[in-house]
Design goal:
Blueprint: E1 3-7, H1 11-24, E2 29-32, H2 38-45, E3 49-53, H3 62-75, E4 80-85, H4 91-102, E5 108-111, H5 116-125
Parallel strand pairs: 1-2, 1-3, 3-4, 4-5
Protein name: DNA-binding response regulator
Organism: Faecalibacterium prausnitzii
Amino acid sequence: MKCVVVDMRNRLFGDAISGSLQHFDAGFRVYQTEGTAAEDLCVDTHADVLVAEVTAYPPWRLEQRLDLCRRLRQGLPGCRVALVVDEVCEPQLADQVRRAKKDGLIDGFFYSSVSSDYLSAMIDAL
């Protein structure tokens, strides 16, 4: 049973990702941050994957997400971090996220335009 923490700025988008994951595999345990710090929720639930949105605004900025990833790799080394970015509205940010993956700073990334089935399958494969 894979434990996934979803940390999205947009609650509706977070609900959609959570529902998609549970529809994909009923064995997924999915938690949304809902006011809880992502790092704390990952540690408390022994998360296998953190799916976190990246935006141009705090606290979802790329620098903050990369810092979170570094802390999780130290405190919860089995937790994979996948970032979600809107490649249409934020093309430069999307390029930075892609480079972070190439540099090994994150475990994966998704553009917000991907299908829910693709996102679920890729999270399952992390």
